[in-house]
Amino acid sequence: MSLKNQVQLITYVDRLANGGLDKLDTLLTNEFAGLFGGVHLLPFFNPIDGEDAGFDPIDHTEVDARIGTWADIASIGATHDIMADLIVNHVSAQSLVFQDVLAKGSQSPYFDLIMTKEKVFGSEASQADIDKIYRPRPTPCFTPMTCATGEVMNVWTTFTSNQIDIDVTGEQGQAYLDRILDTFEQNNIKLIRLDAAGYAIKKAGTNCFMLDDTFDFINALSAKANSRGMNCLVEIHSYYKTQIEIAKRCEAVYDFALPPLVLHTLFNNDPQALYDWLSIAPRNCVTVLDTHDGIGIVDIGPEGDKPGLLTHEQIDNLVESIHRNSQDESKKATGAAASNVDLYQVNCTYLDALGNNKQDYLLARAIQFFAPGIPQVYYTGVLGLNNDMPLLAKSQVGRDINRPYLDETILQNALATPFFAAMKTLIQLRNSHPAFNGEFTITLDEKVLSLQWQLAEDVICLHVDTHNHTASIVTINNNVVLQTIDIKDESIK
Q: Which residues participate in catalysis according to the annotation?
């Protein structure tokens, strides 16, 4: 990827910056100066506060006027690599195109853009075909909708009934995506996150998820982005061997196995599974610990009779440990307890998943920063914030537990903590040391995990004692130790 090999920030504009892109720009160039080479701006389209927190845009090419304009986006892009979401699979039911289809039925010029059950299966779909479809959520795959003309459409709705799947293979779908790419190119977007791309291609007789045709579609879309000076990151939760294969065929993928494996390591003083994974994990990846979604589980589990990175029993223990560490706050935000829509995630801040143990949290961040890939840190993670139980109680949306709205007082108080100072030290080291542009090696000596980077005579190594939960970073040049930095509580210097 032709991006800065530096830590990136993940953030909502309205929840971190108190409402505006201009405020976020100021924050990035002042309080966050030197910390982030890029920023993932979570959906800033119209509307930012839809049913799925921006992931159900009415119009991908329109910035929500309440937070700013495309000129504001371009301004941030002049100094930071911006990642924006291209929500490949669906459009809002409130969009003008879908509303036109509801009004005019098959006579609408946009009718061919909308994916229906009939377009894939014909007039009669067998139950066997429907049962094969991979489902990320418990909601119905198809939603019957009646047009003003009296026509009934069985609209394909992979996620919710407000997120209408589109036919990305037809002329209408291609034109729709091209228009978004053109807008991104004109406004300094450097990296495109292909949201829900794995579900974009539907074929009868398959599970309609990550088919060979899906790879062809992603590669073609990536080529269009590349021709406009942009890179593509594929967002897919799947079995770990599938993720490795996806990485071989795409520009970049997320390392979604890393967050739960780091937790497993720290919960059990056992780095073996993490060592095994980092020995084979894709190198063309973006790493995260926390995101706007929950902590993924499917990425480390078995698939059928194929073993995972962890066993079912280990995963159960992992989930229960998160619930216990968070004093059951995560349990209130996960599954049916909070009308949670995801089948494979636990909702909790990463800090609370670790029992609010800042020592363990800083160890986790150090591991992430030394793992292969470009690291991203979610806004609550960089500030060390806890679960937002009042927001969860108000919205009853599980993922809101880790999607707080920060006013100026909360923000400034967090920026003044020793924790944030320690995070700054780690981030600045990851951004500045030349060895991170070199070769990665990993070793395991009993309970001590060592992650090393080397470029010519420059070496930087992280040693993590997973038994005592201590760690140190050693920098070397020409075989001479220059510095040893102990990671201890919040006193990193």
A: 195, 235
